[in-house]
Amino acid sequence: MLNFMEKRLCGFSLSEMLITLTIIAILAVGSVPVLTKKKPKKDVINHGSYICYRTTDGTYHWERTENNNKTSGTSYGSCIFTTPTAKIKSYSVKLIGGGGGGAAGTLPKPKVMYSSGSVRVDEDGEYTVALIAGGGGGGTQICGSTSKAGGSGGYIAEDVMLYKNNYYYVTVGRGSSNIHNAGGSTTFTGDGYNITASGGRSGNWRVHREGPFGWGVIDKCKWGDGNGGGGSPAGVAGSQTEGRCGQSGLAGTISNERINNLTNNTSKYYGRGGAPCYAGNPGVASVSKVSLGSGGAGRPGEAIVKTFTALPSQVNITLGMGGSGGSYNGAAGYAGGVSRFGSLLTANGGIGGDTEYIVNRTATAPGQNANVPALTKVASINRSYGGFTVNNSSVDARAATMNGYSGAGSGGSGGGAAMGEYGNGAKGMPGAVIVEW
Q1: Is the dihedral of CA 259, 261, 264, 268 positive or negative?
Q2: What is the tens place of the pLDDT at every residue in 33-43?
Q3: Bond preceding residue 233 cis, omega within 30 of 0
Q4: With a threshold of 0.70, does the pTM exceed it?
Q5: Were 60 and a residue from 75, 171, 197, 278 both cysteine, which residue would form a disulfide, CB within 3.0 to 4.6 Å?
Q6: Backbone angles phi, psi at 326, to 5 degrees
Q7: Is the dihedral of CA 207, 210, 212, 215 positive or negative?
Q8: What whole-number distance in Å separates Cα of residue 233 and Cα of residue 221?
């Protein structure tokens, strides 16, 4: 009994228990901030990027960098952006539309005359007078024999100073009145000028007739040699290959680009020599103000940036192609295509370039150089250059080349112009999209 009582006397007293509980409570309260502090989530990616761009053949290219791992590939029709599996705080999306195409250079619009008469100009200044004479007739064909074609009319282009208060006179040469006759000359006179392009000469011909005892006798008639008429340069001779009636490919035809432009693209018909057995075509004249139009550059595609806190699991991306450049005298460029980041973001294409006139007789008119959007990665390269700025030789604009997506959305540069020659505008560059997180 005594031993049992002694064991019970070995426990804690009430005051000791209270003190111990108080200490434990104080420690528990002090450890609450440490226990409840939010731990950083290990599944958040610090950064990553996705780029989609198009090359000028329309192919889509994409590059994705995530956790220092880079993948890339190509696709057709669109790019597909797949959002990361980890939770991302925000996405920055940069979208660029296709660049507009550059305008073609512009030559002066000529006043073309198809018949004889007086001429007055609207203002004093330098003008180009272009003349094409009438074509010579083709030789005749009798009894199945062959003949030669007529030569084209002569042609000439000369720069002159004309005044609005003066009268000038043009005589337009007729084509040969019939076969084996020469064409008429085309002239420009007045104020001391006397500019002439001579008519084309007729083709010679053969007559085959039956002689005594049924023998054939062939007489060559030297009424014409099919040579081109006089001018600077001279007209084109008819083919010296003998042909049958109606073989129009043998006739002398003018193919001078400057004369063709100055006469409003008429030289393939007017002044042409006659095919065998046919009369030649009439001449034509034109008076053009000496002025050149430099092609304006296309505008860069629209470039916009927007931040998203969340994106769908997949986003379909379509990018606008660059607009085509102007491809004929004075043609404006075409607008670039629209770029879309799903239904969330749209960037319009740049508008096409237009033409700006530069009145200058002696100098060429270089096309305007293009610019690239501010969001493009390397804005100082891959721009498009206007005509006559590269080696001072071509009036056609030089298009940009893609290096990744640098240069994306660049406008096409404008074509240049020279006397009697214009250049085409360059095509704009396709758009691009850049997603960063």
Answers
A1: positive
A2: 655 555 555 55
A3: yes
A4: no
A5: 75
A6: -60, 135
A7: positive
A8: 28
